[in-house]
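User: Here's a structure from my thesis project, written as structure tokens. My advisor, Dr. K., wants to see whether a designed sequence matches the one we expressed. Can you design one independently, without my sequence as a hint?
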């Protein structure tokens, strides 16, 4: 069947040499396969009028609804100002929203005419709305015009006479050919059956010429599944190969360092989650398989102690350990905490950062090489070539998202045998997603906070409550506590009415006269930033005015108030990270989300979620659902070793989970790939009906390269 797919596009009726050249150059369509996989970027359904009550599902095509506007109102302010029209189809209501040309739109339509509105319904809080719909007066003479896809056409193509219709015709032509009826399935039959997927040919037809929105969704789902399935297959397979190829140090004993500390000096009882995670880590390190594990734990969940005990496991076996943090402040904090713990058991700990003096640096280099130094804590400075360990057993990397995958790889190269790697992050993303985004990492989760914390009191307040908020700050300062105030911008801007750090700093100094205030933002020189941060860490400064640069990891237990200005501007996950800066001591802490009184209902709801829950996973899920492919997507996609064409990691978590499961089954569900907590139960796993060398898989892997994700670029992570 390869010949049909591989037939050059120039042989298609009506194409020819010249147009084929344009197609190949502009949109990469060189043969029939390319054309069939040149999916519409959106679909429009003009085949009938929908009722609002008929709509369900998330990825609906643009469609038309007949009815009347009930009312128009302006909502929001500044950049978020918008016109909301309430539209009724006679039975149910839906919002239509305009963000631009509000003046024009508010007088363009009336409430007496019957209209047809046309657009893509967006699901938001269980209700549909249409953003900037096309609106025209209902004309009973005008017949419905069908349901079809819209293709991307580039400017040069347009100049050469191509249009959406040309592409549509070409696809129609290919589908008419006898070869098309025989195109082979690209997913194993068992998987199609098990996951109720639409077969390839049918899915292809429905991608281009959907018979209904439901069938279109099934088709899209099938291709998303297929794409993610092959990505997972690649990742899992790579991981298995790596497991077999890359040897890790085999640690055999828990000895006097670990036990000595654990029995005599442990400052608190470990939480169940900390214990479980340590077992998972130990299980990795004693097998001889190189550990490559992601440790997710919410802010304040006690990852530092896990890092320390992990280091002790290595030291007990005659190895050295290293802990790397993204900033000098964080590295210094780790050093202070950990060297206190370490000296009790005679552990040699050192700190290496960009500002370590030459002499100290040389000493560190020497004691690393001759093995006197047990544990080195530091920043990127650890990556320098001069830093050579005698016997590096484990590397712990804190706050993964600041380090690229490439840097992770550089730590690996510091020994003949790759050291065990533990990556710690407070960014809570669902497990399956984490394993995909971070390539082949196994995942452990600390899902429990240490006991005895006074929960942070989170409040949503408005400008009209300013005095109340100032009073709260005053009273906390009086008790000797410290305060963060976070702004969305550094400088005032004419374009928005957001509060800026510059003005905020002024206001803070004016309001809290005589209180030392420091400030940090992202455009400062690193040294100056560190200096300001240190002022706050040491307690010299009592209020820190900042942009979100303080998000990562700073630990000032004496800080009990976090005020976030224009909180409506931040994502929930970001708010959660910021909130995590307080509530680190025994005192009652407060997080005050300053919102805009005039914000829409959805913004208020978002902020109230923050007040209701402190569960980072819940929050990140809510964030992903509400914001869809927004910032989250950016965060997820950056640094990923592959591109997705159909699927979207931020939105397709459920499909991803099933795709990974399918890939696992196909590969025989090898146990060690997952942390014990995540392993499939023994009866669930493995009756894989499909052998690894199934020609189906080999063939589709080849095709995957051709049409889906660029094949995973393993050089980035291996
Ligand atoms: P994070 O996971 O955000 O890095 P830390 O390791 O900084 O969290 O821990 C936050 C605080 O909780 C620290 O003051 C730490 O000493 C304390 N802590 C950690 N584990 C426990 C525990 N099991 N019981 C009580 N306090 C703990
Ligand atoms: Mg930490």
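Assistant: Designed independently from the structure alone:
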């Amino acid at each position: 069947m390869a010949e049909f797919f591989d037939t050059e596009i120039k042989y298609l009726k009506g194409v020819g040499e010249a147009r084929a050249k344009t197609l190949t150059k502009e949109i990469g369509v060189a043969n029939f396969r390319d054309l069939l996989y040149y999916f519409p970027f959106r679909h429009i359904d003009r085949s009938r009028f929908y009722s609002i009550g008929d709509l369900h599902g998330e990825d609906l095509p643009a469609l038309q609804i007949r009815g009347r506007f009930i009312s128009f109102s302006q909502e929001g302010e500044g950049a978020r100002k918008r016109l909301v029209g309430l539209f009724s189809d006679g039975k149910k209501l839906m919002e239509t929203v305009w963000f631009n040309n509000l003046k024009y739109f508010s007088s363009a339509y009336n409430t007496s005419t019957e209209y047809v509105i046309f657009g893509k319904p967006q699901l938001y809080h269980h209700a549909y709305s249409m953003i900037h719909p096309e609106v025209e007066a209902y004309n009973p003479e005008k017949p419905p015009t069908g349901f079809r896809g819209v293709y991307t056409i580039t400017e040069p193509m347009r100049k050469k006479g191509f249009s959406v219709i040309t592409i549509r015709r070409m696809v129609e032509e290919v589908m008419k050919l006898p070869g098309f009826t025989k195109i082979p399935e690209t997913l194993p039959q068992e998987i199609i059956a098990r996951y109720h997927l639409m077969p390839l040919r049918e899915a292809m037809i429905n991608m281009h010429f959907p018979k209904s929105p439901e069938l279109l969704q099934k088709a899209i789902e099938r291709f998303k599944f297929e794409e993610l399935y092959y990505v997972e297959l690649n990742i899992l397979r790579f991981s298995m190969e790596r497991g077999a190829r890359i040897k890790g140090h085999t640690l055999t004993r828990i000895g006097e360092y670990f036990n000595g500390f654990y029995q005599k000096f442990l400052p608190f009882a470990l939480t169940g989650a900390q214990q479980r995670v340590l077992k998972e880590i130990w299980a990795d390190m004693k097998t001889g398989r190189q550990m490559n594990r992601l440790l997710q734990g919410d802010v304040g969940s006690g990852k530092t102690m896990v890092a320390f005990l992990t280091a002790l496991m290595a030291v007990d076996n005659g190895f050295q350990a290293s802990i790397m943090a993204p900033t000098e402040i964080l590295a210094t904090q780790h050093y202070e905490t950990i060297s206190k713990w370490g000296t009790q058991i005679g552990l040699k700990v050192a700190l290496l950062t960009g500002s370590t003096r030459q002499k100290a640096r040389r000493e560190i280099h020497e004691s690393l090489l001759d093995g006197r130094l047990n544990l080195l804590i530091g920043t990127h400075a650890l990556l320098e070539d001069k830093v050579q360990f005698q016997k590096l057993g484990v590397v712990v990397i804190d706050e993964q998202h600041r380090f690229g995958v490439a840097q992770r790889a550089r730590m690996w190269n510091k020994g003949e045998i790759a050291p065990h790697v533990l990556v710690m992050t407070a960014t809570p993303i669902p497990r399956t997603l984490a394993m995909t985004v971070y390539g082949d990492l196994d995942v452990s989760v600390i899902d429990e906070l240490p006991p005895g914390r006074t929960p942070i009191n989170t409040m949503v307040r408005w400008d009209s409550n300013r005095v109340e908020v100032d009073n709260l700050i005053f009273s906390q300062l009086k008790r000797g506590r410290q305060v963060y105030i976070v702004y969305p911008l550094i400088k005032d801007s004419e374009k928005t009415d957001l509060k800026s750090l510059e003005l905020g700093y002024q206001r803070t100094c004016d309001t809290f006269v005589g209180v030392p205030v420091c400030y940090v933002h992202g455009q400062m020189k690193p040294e100056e930033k560190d200096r300001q941060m240190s002022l706050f860490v040491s307690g010299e400064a009592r209020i820190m005015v900042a942009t979100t640069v303080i998000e990562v990891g700073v630990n000032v237990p004496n800080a009990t108030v976090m005020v976030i200005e224009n909180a409506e501007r931040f994502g929930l996950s970001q708010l959660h990270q910021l909130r995590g800066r307080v509530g680190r001591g025994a005192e009652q802490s407060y997080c005050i989300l300053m919102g805009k009184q005039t914000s829409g209902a959805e913004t208020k709801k978002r902020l109230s979620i923050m007040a209701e829950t402190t569960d980072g996973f819940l929050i990140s899920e809510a964030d992903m659902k509400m914001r869809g492919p927004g910032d989250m997507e950016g965060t997820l996609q950056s640094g990923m070793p592959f591109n997705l064409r159909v699927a979207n990691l931020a939105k397709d978590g459920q499909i991803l989970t099933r795709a990974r499961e399918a890939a696992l089954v196909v590969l025989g569900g090898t146990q060690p790939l997952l942390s014990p907590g995540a392993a499939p139960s023994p009866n669930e796993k493995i009756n894989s009906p499909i052998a690894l060398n199934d020609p189906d898989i080999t063939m589709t892997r080849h095709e995957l390269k051709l049409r889906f994700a660029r094949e995973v670029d393993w050089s980035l992570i291996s």
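When you compare it with your expressed construct, this may help: The longest strand covers residues 62-75.
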